[in-house]
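#struct-pred
JK: can someone run the complex with iron/sulfur cluster? inputs below
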Amino acid sequence: MTVTRTLCPYCGVGCGLEALPAPGKSTSPDAASHTWIVRGDRAHPSSHGMVCVKGATVAESMGKDQLLHPMLRQRLDQPFQRVSWETALEHICDRIRTVQQTQGADALCMYGSGQFVTEDYYTAQKLMKGCLGTNNFDANSRLCMSSAVSGYVQSFGADGPPCCYDDLDLTDCAFIIGSNAAECHPILFNRLRKHHKRHPHVKLIVVDPRRTPTAEVADVHLAIRPGTDIDLLNGIAYLLLHWGYDRPEFIQHHTTNFAACAAVVQHYTP
Ligand code: SF4
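RT: done, structure tokens with the ligand placed:
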């Protein structure tokens, strides 16, 4: 039986999937996708065979009203008719040209999917900026990551998340602040939770005003008042300095302007 290893297309966790033909069904390219079975890939390094409901139902969702050919309707109250690729592309080009000529290039925009990869972004931007002459291109992956990225750059000097999934199996203490990972990132959270359950010394601390499913399984749930997270973090920094838990060598080699930070946190007694 041929098993194709692939990735879940939905979110950035990037769970590994295996696609294989359902027993006794046709797998020709035109066959509806319910002839395939999709399951978690146990050998995949991020997900270890686990998938959430979205990944587990990839094959079903592909089978429902999937667009297989270009379809066109001249008016909203008319039914769609199947057309050739040439006709569809000609129609799209005509409409774009009309907008460009009557309203200017800036009347065009493209909002890209978070599922674009770097090469997709490059091509889409070339099309919009280089060919069509508009600057109006953006994607939800940039908008939803922009606050995280600016935080990473300010805190760590680079815009990549600074940890890796393997850390979830190694940590002695997971500190989760402002995230309901159990519901928003179930696969990653399950991985951490397995490690947490298996090792009684591992502590899970959750900071969230709400008693979320993540908070429910924590060893310590700090249900702070909304808007007091910076006070909490500065208070922890105050205690670490007060108890002498800072590492001068690390501070000297890997941080800048530490004295200013220490001056601020000295106002945050518990
Ligand atoms: S967490 Fe769910 S949606 Fe995200 S990659 Fe994994 S299976 Fe797909």
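RT: quick notes.
The chain has a mean pLDDT of 90.
The CA atoms of residues 98 and 104 lie 9 Å apart.
JK: thanks, will look after standup
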